[in-house]
Amino acid sequence: MTRFLGQRLLQSIVVLLAMSFVVYALIGLMPGDPIDMMIKSDPRMTAADAQRLKALYGLDQPLVGRYWAWLQAALAGNFGYSRLFARPALDALWPAVQSTVILVGTSFVLALAVALPAGVWVARRPGGRADRWVNLFCFAGISVPPFWLAILLIMLFAVKLGLLPAGGVPTRAGAGIGDHIAHLALPVLTLALLQIGGYLRFMRAAMIEALRQDYVRTAEAKGLSPMRVLLSHALPNALIPVVTVVALGFGGLFSGALITENMFAWPGMGKLIFDSIMGNDFNLALVALLFATLLTLLGNLLADIAYALLDPRIVYAELKP
User: How far apart are alpha carbons 232 and 255 in whole angstroms?
Assistant: First the structure.
């Protein structure tokens, strides 16, 4: 297991380096650069001034040379300066990461708390009335666009009923925990509803397949209680494919919550990536996208570890080249 984790860690580093070059190249190929924006905002800047600044920041070098210089600085802990926030990129990223962890973590736990038990419940009687209603809910949750769901929730709870704020964060002095929860409620509900449908469908399908296996019928023939058969024999095996979907979804949420965070003006990573790209803040966009990539790789690694915990029969042998 230790050798496997070491090899996976090495693979993750290689993937992260490759992604850093791809993201850097894509951002570098975008029209305009920070110096061009300075020229547009300051008519007194001459062409000679612009050329001198581009030489100072290495923007007159080929793309590969610029990437190599950035990589050397990044390995030394210097990820550049954010022009939007006027501070180092890592310092500007950290508050957004904290906000996204609160939003994504809460919605993720809520989605799993609803989807997994509901999937197990309806899998016991597939095709029944409850199963049909749950399938309808799942298809609706998968099909509804995030921005449309956000608008509906804002119109219902914030405009019509006036129960919750339309989003954002508390701005008044002395805001308590209740104010923060109220502002967090609608973004969390939106993200949770978008996740529940997919997780519930995967849990239901995996559980139905597990309940059809021979080892389940053997456990039933031994006289074990239905609940013990369900939880001790079928559920651990059904969770193995679901873990893959959950791990990938969790990593993608940190950057994929862009629409939800923008709809509710939540200052998280998704909104930060959007604002940095639109504002040509290359350093901040690059470090934010790489952080999202790192979280996706970490989710895959945690999924592999969860496989071994769920099924002791899984043994990770040495990876062959």
Answer: 36
From the CB of residue 87, how many other CB atoms can be counted at a distance below 10 Å? 12
pTM of the model: 0.75
> How many Cβ atoms sit within 10 Å of the Cβ of residue 105?
13
Q: What is the pLDDT of residues 12-43, one digit of tens each?
A: 888 888 888 888 888 777 666 666 666 666 66
Residue 10 CA: distances (Å) to CA of 13, 18, 304, 321: 5, 13, 15, 13
Q: What is the DSSP string of 142-197?
A: HHS-HHHHHHHHIIIIIIIS--S--SS---STT--HHHHHHHHHHHHHHHHHHHHH
Q: Which of 9, 79, 103 is nearest to 304 (CA)?
A: 9
User: pLDDT digit string (tens) for 269-278?
Assistant: 888 888 887 7
Q: How many CA atoms lie within 13 A of 300 on its CB side?
A: 12
Domains by residue range for the chain, with CATH: 2-88 (no CATH), 89-310 (1.10.3720.10)
Q: Are 92 and 276 in contact (CB under 8 A)?
A: no
293: Cα separation from own chain's centroid? 9
